[in-house]
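Sample pair:
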Amino acid sequence: MVSVTTLPIALQTSTMGLPAGVVPPLVRAAVRLFCTVSTHDMALRLFRREARLILALLEDLPARQGGVRVLTDSMPGLDGRYWSAFMVADYLGFLVEEVRGILEELAAGRPPGKKAFMADHRPRVGAGLEGVRRFIAAVMGFEAAAEQLGPFDRRAKHEHPRFGLLCAHGWHCFAALSLYLNRKQIERIVKRLEARAEA
């Protein structure tokens, strides 16, 4: 029998011919391009849109299904995962909180005091509605900070573990694109759950 504690990591493998956690060059280039051509308002609009789409998906999901873990295949920018919808919300709450902290430090002219580690963070296996509440609170805090602090200076930078040095605007874009990718993951989880219910 596979251990519950090792299963999430063991199943997080890439189907794109790359080790899990390695960003494909095309995805890296796409992120860089979006950071270059987008404005502060564009990034914030994308962030808000994706946050609300995620909340709509979670609201439509019965609580008993929100904690059911489903294996999803990898897609460009996101490794295959064995997560529940609530685990995704829990992870995103952590990610958004961390990016907000980085933005606040960079906006104040201070280098963030710690290395960003959201790429290696794993949500709690038993994440429930508290993960959704964490995500909601994180989104509200992020949006308030982005409105107050932006547009961001593009000179000061902080290293992302997978995308390299990003300026504050780059981190803002990264947060918005992360919501987009993980919203796609939740949609796949929901489809798998629906298929199970119909079987």
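The chain has one domain: 39-198.
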